[in-house]
Amino acid sequence: MKLVVVGAAGRMGQTLIRVIQETPGVKLHAAVEREGSPFIGKDAGELAGAGFLGVPVTSDPLEAFLHAEGVLDFTSPAGSVEFAGLAAQARIVHVIGTTGCTEADEEKFAAAARHARVVKSGNMSLGVNLLGVLVEQAAKALPAAGWDIEVLEMHHKHKVDAPSGTALLLGQAAAKGRDIDLKTQSVRVRDGHTGAREAGTIGFATLRGGSVIGEHSVILAGEGELVTLSHSALDRSIFARGAVAAAIWARTEKPGFYSMLDVLGLSH
Ligand code: NAD
Fold it and tell me: Is 58 near ligand 1, meaning CB less than 6 Å away?
């Protein structure tokens, strides 16, 4: 399967290039970076530490998508919206890992999914998607009256959005278990004299610093006991392997909007 990596010089872009090299059945077809990036024209393999691949980084996605079968996209919300339109025109698979997207962006992805096979997830790892299933079960089993849910996350100092896409994915899983609307029931910030905690809400807390790849805990706090479900990302390749698996899976699917739960067979 011929894959394009967009955002090729980024932390995830470089990891994707290395993982594609190690994975049978997939091939790096093209690598795209922003106009004006110092990496344009450089060999994508050398940039990623995977050795010379003969694939120069380009700023022209249109040319890059020509004859490609899938796009792996961990870039920025504006970039992903642009790539969704182009992938839909080219009728190819679009795997979106970008986080921090707005509702308007999500509507554009859904529109693109009428023509393309789109797989989007705030976290592409097997572990976090399994954790989401367990969080949903726990939130359902432990009554809202006596059990408060808090989602805690920590990431490296360069991360630009908060809470993380993964924290929101886990919050969404808890909200599903409780059968509540996360949008109206979440507490994203606490500061000053906040008053007592409102029962039934889902709280988020964000830490940033150093080089942490991704730490997430969902704490279910009851009277006299805590249940903590957590995940630690030790290497970015877990997300890249998930993204490549998603592209291979989606290749034979109908156009539509899919999540990693579909790819991993964890949806119900
Ligand atoms: P990064 O800043 O290291 O890399 C992003 C790259 O994308 C940069 O090189 C940038 O130049 C490029 N880019 C941005 N807009 C572009 C455009 N329009 N055209 C071409 N290139 C463009 O960031 P990162 O740590 O690699 O993370 C990227 C995104 O992926 C973030 O939103 C992050 O939260 C998300 N992420 C998701 C998962 C997941 O499993 N879903 C895992 C890790 C990171």
Answer: no
What pTM, to 2 d.p., does this model score? 0.94
Determine if ligand 1 sits within 6 Å of the CB of residue 10: yes
Instruction: Mark out the alpha helices in the chain (DSSP H runs).
Output: 11-22, 44-48, 61-65, 77-90, 103-112, 126-141, 165-178, 182-185, 237-250, 260-264
Query: For position 217, what pLDDT does the model report?
Result: 98
Q: Would you state the pLDDT for residue 267?
A: 86
Pairwise CA distance, residues 168 & 164, whole Å: 6
Residue 193 has pLDDT above 80, yes or no: yes
Q: Which residue's CA lies nearest to atom 37 of ligand 1?
A: 97
Q: Whose CA is closest to atom 18 on ligand 1? A: 79
Residues 155, 47: Cα–Cα separation, whole Å: 24
Q: Give residue 60 CA to ligand 1 midpoint distance, Å.
A: 17
pLDDT per residue over 132-169, tens digit each?
A: 999 999 999 999 999 999 999 999 999 999 999 999 99
Residue among 5, 6, 12, 86 to mutate when testing ligand 1 (max atoms within 8 A of CB): 12
Q: Which two tokens stand for residue 102?
A: 């707005």
